Amino acid sequence: MNRIIGIVAAVVVLAGGYWFLTAKETPTTPVDTTQGDTSGDADGIDTSGIVEMTMGPADAKVTIIEYASFTCPHCANFHKGPFKQLKADYIDTGKIHFIYRDVYFDRLGLWASMVARCDGTNRFFGISDMLYVQQRDWIGGGDDPVEVANNLRRIGKVAGLSEDQLNACLEDGDKARALSAWYQNNAEADGVNSTPTLMINGEKHGNMNYASLSALIDEKLAE
Hints:
This protein is an alpha+beta fold. It has 10 helices and 5 strands; from the N terminus they run αββααβααααααββα.
């Protein structure tokens, strides 16, 4: 977990200051991510305001938690293929409860999550789908944060978010800190160190094809 904790610390700093200094034409005072409510979890950061992104009935017999990063190519492949089948066969039919949890192995993944979560639960899965389908396009070479920021803003606007909404979300240093701490807590609790990771009724599984995933789900449903 040292790698995760180190990355989280770097992401928090970058999210608060580096975003402002690179993503706006006129530099402004960076968000101070050392301030805010300290009544909560990891390192005293309050994560109670972070909303779980879910689909399907909460009382379903099988619960699947997916840990994924918007910058992970394997996650993009999962969402462009197996996940669509999973949604049609098990989520939309009410057989499983699906929970998506963000993983931040880099600052770009955090920025993407802040855009996806910008309108709460209303647009999350729609924007997530766009982020995975267009992953190569919005990340580009990954070495130009201004370009990445602008690409993410464009995706947000296509999804119906206004410039003011996007600015408020991307400049929210307290939210960035809370998301990072929330991710750290979840990753440590479930032993997540790679993506995608699937927790099926509490059992951890790595990336797999849809046939294998479907067989596991059916086995749990039959118990």
